[in-house]
């Protein structure tokens, strides 16, 4: 079965540019780890690019995903959301069978 890499929206790349991630030599790292209230949780942080990372580029910015997390994020969409309650990077993951209310924990 062919896996479809995650996509990053222009709005997410714009936000990375606004915070100057590339100017700091950093990329937005999306990782999946065990834990959270639904079984898995997203870890989102600014980090340096590592050797086994998938690199998604746009507008001079980078989003990176490690090889262990990549299968959990097949065909996912990484976006940036700004609402009255706050602003954050969000992940629309078609592989998740359920997720918690905060959006950082999911099950498959």
Automatic annotation (TrEMBL):
Organism: Parasulfitobacter algicola
Core domain boundaries: 7-103
Official protein name in the record: Iron-sulfur cluster assembly accessory protein
Protein origin, superkingdom: Bacteria
InterPro entries: ATAP, ATAP_core_dom, FeS_cluster_insertion_CS, HesB-like_dom_sf
């Amino acid at each position: 079965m062919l896996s479809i890499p995650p996509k990053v929206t222009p709005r997410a790349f714009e936000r990375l540019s606004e915070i100057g991630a590339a100017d700091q030599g950093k990329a937005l790292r999306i990782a999946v780890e065990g834990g959270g209230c639904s079984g898995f949780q997203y870890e989102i942080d600014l980090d340096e690019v590592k050797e086994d990372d998938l690199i998604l580029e746009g507008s001079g910015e980078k989003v990176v995903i490690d090889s262990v997390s990549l299968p959990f994020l097949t065909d996912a969409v990484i976006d940036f959301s700004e609402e009255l309650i706050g602003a954050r990077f969000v992940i629309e993951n078609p592989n998740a069978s359920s997720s918690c209310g905060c959006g950082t924990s999911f099950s498959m």
